[in-house]
Amino acid sequence: MSVTHADIWSSYAQAALGRAGHRSGGARNAVVQLLGEQDCCLSAQEIFDALRQRRKRSVGLASVYRVLELLLSLELVQRIDVGDGVARYEALDPSGHHHHHLLCDRCGRVMAFEDAGLESAIDELSARLGSEVVRHDVLLHGKCPDCTATAPGD
Question: Which pTM was predicted?
Fold first, then answer.
């Protein structure tokens, strides 16, 4: 059995929670495991819905929010705001590896993307400004491939 990225992040997050004095709990474990499996951000409602589908005993929405706030405070996840009033959350890779997001203004889909040239440009801008960029988010607005294909004239 091979070790997955989800297993690595989940173990890392559980260890960080333990070092911070938080005992293991059902809701916390479920949210951590789910976040570790994701390629992109999810809202608290999406996390709640996914957990409800997986488990016989549902995790409450308030518990999901509490876990997310705890994970945020320990810098294990980041909150993503795409401007629609719904906060989304995703695991922070301890190596610093990250991606950015494209929001389809037509259907609301959020897609992850990576671009080495963009990262290089951000590094160059940081040096030019004489600043140290510790973390950054890039959010592009537009149309996803499905919406582009179905309505090319919009």
Answer: 0.80
